[in-house]
UniProtKB/TrEMBL annotation, chain A:
Keywords per UniProt: Methyltransferase, Mitochondrion, Oxidoreductase, Transferase, Transit peptide
Protein name, entry field: Arginine-hydroxylase NDUFAF5, mitochondrial
Organism in which the protein naturally occurs: Ictidomys tridecemlineatus (Thirteen-lined ground squirrel)
Domain Methyltransferase type: residue ranges: 94-185
UniProt main location, coarse: mitochondrion
GO BP term, example: methylation
Membrane-crossing residue ranges in chain numbering: none
SUPFAM superfamilies named among the record's database cross-references: S-adenosyl-L-methionine-dependent methyltransferases
Domain of life: Eukaryota
Location(s) in or outside the cell: Mitochondrion
From TrEMBL, chain B:
Lineage per the UniProt record: Eukaryota, Metazoa, Chordata, Craniata, Vertebrata
A single GO BP: mitochondrial respiratory chain complex I assembly
Signal peptide limits: none
Family matches, as InterPro entries: NDUFAF8
Name of the protein this chain belongs to: NADH dehydrogenase [ubiquinone] 1 alpha subcomplex assembly factor 8
PROSITE patterns listed in its UniProt record: CHCH
GO cellular component: mitochondrion
Length: 345, 74
């Protein structure tokens, strides 16, 4: 019984870096950095990260990058709103998968003292948007953050975690680099994103070619997101969803915009070729099934916003069992109770 | 992509002409879309070439539109 308890505790707590270096047979692990080598059991390798880096680099060095920034700007704005809602100032903040820095441009020097921007694409970091906060750009993968434990007061991530292979590990890394009482504010694409495009391509491919292959990447469900954040060690979770609908002239324009945003498909099991006939069929199906009155077609982007805190003693905790002073049965007399407590104070 | 992206540019420019040609074939596209949508209704079955006739009409209209624009531009 005692042995089992000890094993359970070992599994729950991430092992110290020094211990792991011994287990790796002498391989050097930089002290303080998240211990390497322990990917979550069942971690999938869905996305080709190398290709995603090339796609993001290509998208960032196009002649008019602002043309495709509208979605990221809007979500960056909403994340900045949530940061302002937290009545606290952060000395050191980190943006994971920042792109051209859409969140930093909306924040001011008082709220965030210094901003670290990380992304896998160097062209995006080179063309970053102007902001009044002093920033440091670091080329880093979302799954391998090169920072020490307990470094940052605030970590933000806007619309980049949906291309991460091992999401539990990425969230654990974010939890690792946060200081106690630090907060993580993130935005991710949800399950309903681009469902019109997914359905149209599926139907058209089935009708034209007899089968279909996935063209839209898999997204996390909202329940799984809560579980993942809890498993990574975050407290006091808040997850809310939002839908942004953008109207396009047609399916081809939508696909061109997605490519311009750097959101092209990069999963290993993607089909290398999309036949022109299938594209034509899908555009016809899309228009017929989903068009608006004015002839444009909508595309839905469902965004999940999540806020998670790293544990600190000062945070509110659930009260002890049996410490209630008022019973639920007296809920009807709540007004009386409230005025009584006001009078006594 | 190659250094000057000649092939990609050519293919992309051809693809950029698709929306206007599709706009020229609105009726056929709508017919094809309705056929596919009908096969997804309860009781229908979507299999290969279930709407082949509508698609042939759409494709020939599309090719005719392509020939028209090609003739017009050259």
């Amino acid at each position: 019984m005692l042995r089992q308890a000890r094993l359970w505790r070992l599994w729950r707590r991430p092992p110290a870096a020094r211990v792991l270096a011994a287990n790796l047979g002498g391989r050097e692990v930089a002290s303080g950095v998240f211990p390497l080598g322990n990917t979550s059991p069942g971690a999938l390798n869905i996305f080709d990260r190398n290709l995603k880096r090339k796609q993001k680099n290509w998208a960032a060095q196009q002649p008019e990058p602002m043309k495709f920034d509208y979605l990221r700007e809007e979500v960056g704005n909403r994340i900045a709103d949530r940061i302002y809602d937290i009545s606290r100032d952060f000395t050191l903040a980190l943006d994971v998968g920042c792109g051209r820095g859409y969140i930093a441009q909306h924040l001011n020097k008082e709220t965030v003292g210094k901003f670290f921007q990380t992304d896998i694409a160097e062209n995006a970091l080179k063309n970053s948007l102007e902001t009044e906060i002093p920033t440091v750009s670091v080329l880093a993968d979302e799954e391998f953050l090169p920072f020490r434990e307990n470094t940052f007061d605030l970590v933000v991530s806007s619309l980049s975690l949906h291309w991460v292979n091992d999401l539990p590990r990425a969230l654990e890394q974010i939890h690792y680099v946060l200081k106690p009482n630090g907060v993580f504010v993130g935005a991710m694409f949800g399950g309903d994103t681009l469902y019109e495009l997914r359905c149209s391509l599926q139907l058209a491919e089935t009708e034209r070619e007899g089968g279909f292959s996935p063209h839209i990447s898999p997204f996390t469900a909202v329940n799984d997101l809560g579980h993942l954040l809890g498993r990574a060690g975050f407290n006091t979770l808040t997850v809310d969803t939002d839908e942004i609908q953008v109207n396009y002239p047609g399916m081809f324009e939508l696909m061109e915009d997605l490519q311009g945003m750097g959101e092209s498909n990069c999963s290993w099991n993607r089909k290398a070729l999309l036949h022109r006939e299938t594209m034509l069929a899908a555009a016809a199906v899309y228009r017929e099934m989903y068009r608006n009155e004015d002839g444009s077609v909508p595309a839905t982007y469902q965004i999940y916003y999540m806020i998670g805190w790293k544990y600190h003693d000062s945070q509110a905790r659930p009260a002890e069992r049996g410490s209630a002073t008022v019973s639920f049965g007296e809920l009807g007399k709540l007004n009386n109770l409230m005025s009584q407590t006001e009078k006594s104070q | 992509m190659s250094a000057n992206g000649a092939v990609w540019g050519r293919v992309r420019s051809r693809l950029r002409a698709f929306p206007e040609r599709l706009a020229a074939c609105g009726a056929e596209a709508a017919a094809y879309g309705r056929c596919v949508q009908a096969s997804t209704a309860p009781g229908g079955r979507l299999s290969k070439d279930v709407c082949a006739r509508e698609f042939e009409a759409l494709r020939s209209c599309f090719a005719a539109a392509a020939k028209r624009t090609l003739k017009g531009s050259s």
